[in-house]
Amino acid sequence: MASCWRRCSPTLFPDETGSSNAATRWVSAGDAKPAFISVTAKRSARRPAGPRAVPRAPLTKWLVSLPPTLFLLVILPLASNFLIRIYAWIILLGPVDLLYTPFAVIAGMVYVHLPFMILPLYSNLEQHDPALLEAAQDLGAGSWTRFWRITLPLSLPGIWAGAALVFIPVLGMFAIPELLGGTRDILIGSLIKEQFLESRDWPLGSTLSLLLTATVLVLAGLSVWAASPRRGRAR
Amino acid sequence: MTRRRRSLWLRAAALTVYAFLYLPLAVVVIFSFNDSLLNAEWVGFTTRWYAVLFDDTAMLHAAANSLFIALTAATTATVLGTMAGIAMQRWRTGFLRCLPFLVLTPVAMPEILLGVSLLLFFRQVLDLTLGMISILIAHITFSIGFVAIIVRVRLAGLDGSIFEAARDLGASPWQTFRHVTLPLIQPGVLAGFLMSFTLSIDDFVITFFVAGVGVTTLPLQIYSMIKVAVSPEVNAVSTLLMALTLTLIALAAKRAPDTLKQRA
Q1: How close B112 comes to chain A (CA, Å)?
Q2: Which of A223, B54, B150, B204 is the most exposed place for a label (fewest CB within 10 A)?
Q3: What pTM was computed for the model?
Q4: Are A22 and A122 in contact (CB under 8 A)?
């Protein structure tokens, strides 16, 4: 979990990048677990005013209480140690003979990092103006068109932020390939680890680390640029 | 009609995602009560793996280490991080504008990079023997940024004129801090402490690099166990660890809505 919380922030420094509502809130949310709660609390407070709250009271109540719960449920798995989550996959994949394959490595990585894709997307989607979708519907757009032409383009900043939040930590990963992968599933993370702890070739290890650092910085910069709301709106 | 069909579809997709997120963890918990050495099929209910766990001196020793490191690191990081947070909030011009960047960078890098750079620093620069001290320094390093962020968020939501008022009324800087600032940021400080504690007790990657041979923490112990074989004892320790983190999160969440509402 430590790992995970640490990773929440590559969508980087809110004040320095001048990024946005969405990104700022996401960063604050990522940096302090508790923030998720207040974000969702605010959302539910706002909800009844929205157009979807028209139905009868009990249903409305259900709608209001549901999203924060669902949202919390995405975060909670992060509360378990990341080794435990990998161990779960050792148990699951062992009996079906999929352990120690590239498939196992990918499954483990997706499992460990999925919440980091969902969270920025959620904080992005939450800010969409429902009136846009309604206007589109009034103008005759079907559900697919509405998604393709409105929701998806508006979500791009969230998609980019999420992609970076997943991609960057995965780049440095060594524990997952080591535990779930076979001997041939070596990533740059495993290589760096090997140089420092096994073959003791520190200069080579440092060079690889520097390469990784440079890659991460470039990617982080790109994602901040891509995730900026100005670009989202321009599309 | 289309609306209804779409919501059904959405519900199915959401259900799949939640199942994906939770089933593996459920399997870990369920098999911790399974009366069989293999995590393969359900044989019967038992708590014997918990008994095995509490008889395992290596595991208990690792747990004690983790607890000690987490408490010490969290306390130190809370003090330093609070100071950094206050400084970040107060000085936003000149050279000190880089301060947030410097504090936050370790937070944003892949852990392995922080791990190897700390390892290099300890060995090549400080010539420190790896062990308890190096683990403590490493954990404090990665926790400070989080405390600083939380404290700064809390401070940003406060009205700065109260501090000026305290000074106008004759309070010394220390008195202002002790009687005005600290009580106001206290929830943020506590949340920062709890966060550092969970980060520290859970950390694997960075500890892996800086631990050396002598000292083992709980995650390191779990890692060496699951690398060798699947054992229900690991299920048991995982279940207990999950329960502990959940409790801490609940505590932090109780404190925090207030902290973060200020900002929004």
Answers
A1: 6
A2: B54
A3: 0.76
A4: no
